[in-house]
């Protein structure tokens, strides 16, 4: 551990000497054989769509779980402590917890699905446009299918 700190120049020269002794065939052939064929092959449209949907679903699962757990916590608290009136009263803390779990996170599901489907296709720059397409799908009421098709 201390050797690189004490003898930095000696270690750098040793690494450079070792790199000069290695023939290009030894490391160039192994890289090309494992990665070159996969990158050159074009994915089919069907595979691209499937991968896109699966990526969107994998990113939406935590949102679904968070919404379900929040909604379940609100229901459990209201039933365990007899707070059904508080649960039904608009603006109360328990009503807000129910709204957070059911409505708010439910509204975010389609935009998140659309955003990460777009991310799967075009990487990070597509997140914003995918999220906007998901919001548009929510506004027109087309649901998950609309979010997928907008992407």
UniProtKB/TrEMBL annotation:
GO terms of molecular function: protein-phosphocysteine-sugar phosphotransferase activity
Keyword Cell membrane recorded: no
GO biological process: phosphoenolpyruvate-dependent sugar phosphotransferase system
Record keywords: Membrane, Phosphotransferase system, Sugar transport, Transmembrane, Transmembrane helix, Transport
Transmembrane spans: 53-77, 97-119, 131-149
Domain of life of the source: Bacteria
Cellular component, GO, one term: plasma membrane
PANTHER family: FRUCTOSE-LIKE PERMEASE, PTS SYSTEM 2-O-ALPHA-MANNOSYL-D-GLYCERATE-SPECIFIC EIIABC COMPONENT
Listed name of the protein: Uncharacterized protein
Naturally occurring in which organism (per UniProt): Aeribacillus pallidus
């Amino acid at each position: 551990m201390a050797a690189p700190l004490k003898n930095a120049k000696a270690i750098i020269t040793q690494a450079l000497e070792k790199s000069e002794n290695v023939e290009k065939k030894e490391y160039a052939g192994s890289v090309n054989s494992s990665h070159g064929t996969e990158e050159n092959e074009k994915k089919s449209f069907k595979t691209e769509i499937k991968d896109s949907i699966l990526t969107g679903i994998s990113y939406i699962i935590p949102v679904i779980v968070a919404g379900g757990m929040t909604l379940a916590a609100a229901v459990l608290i209201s039933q365990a402590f007899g707070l059904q009136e508080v649960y039904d009263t608009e603006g109360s803390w328990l009503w807000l917890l129910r709204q957070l779990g059911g409505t708010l996170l439910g509204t975010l599901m389609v935009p998140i699905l659309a955003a990460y489907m777009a991310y799967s296709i075009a990487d990070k720059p597509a997140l914003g446009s995918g999220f906007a397409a998901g919001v548009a799908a929510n506004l027109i009421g087309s649901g998950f299918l609309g979010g997928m098709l907008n992407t």
